[in-house]
Design goal:
The protein is mainly alpha-helical. It has 2 domains: 6-104, no CATH class; 118-221, Pectate Lyase C-like. The chain is built from 6 helices and 3 strands. The protein starts with 5 loop residues before the first helix and ends in a 107-residue tail after the last helix. The model is unreliable at 1-20 and 84-98 (pLDDT under 50).
Amino acid sequence: MILKCLSESFHKLIYPRIANNYWQLETIKQKDILTLEEASLYLNIQTGMLLEEVGLGKLPGGQLAGRWRFCKDALLNHFSIYHGNGPWIGEENVEEETEVCKGETISRVIEDYKAGRKDFSEIDLRGADFRDTDLSEADFSGSWLSRANFEGSILRGAEFQSTHLRESNFRGANLSYVNFQGADLTGADLGQAILVGANLSDAILLGIDLWGANIEDAKFR
């Protein structure tokens, strides 16, 4: 596991002359969004260890167009909270810094969708706000969308296979022919949603709200 002394990692971030690659770190200092290699250098850990921590939910990161991307400020704050006595730039700023990067990611997803992209699988979009957005036939398979807000959105034919959707809000959304097979919908709100022809087979449906939903021809097993 990661687990070098926080103070050592801190000094390597603040004083890049003692890190292995001074010029790469100087470039990283000017960027807000990092590649996998840049993020691993920034935190002075191997790429495999970094991805392991992301998988455990201890560090934020996600894939866009099949490439890993990390918000630098959110990465730094999450690392300090989970692995040290930090934070380094103030715990009160964690939520603000994370929200800025989250907003940039959501905007990019919407822009890419309008440009014709449909594949958004295996992306970390926890807490994303997609209210009243048309994302018909978008593919979010395997993505992390816990507590995401899709209220009033149009998601006809979208793919959410094996997607993490705990406590997500789909109230009033058009979910016709959406594939939720194997998804974790624990505590999700599907009240007044249109679920005509939707596939919820093998999905985890503990505590979901289906009040007023149209479930005509929906598949539950």
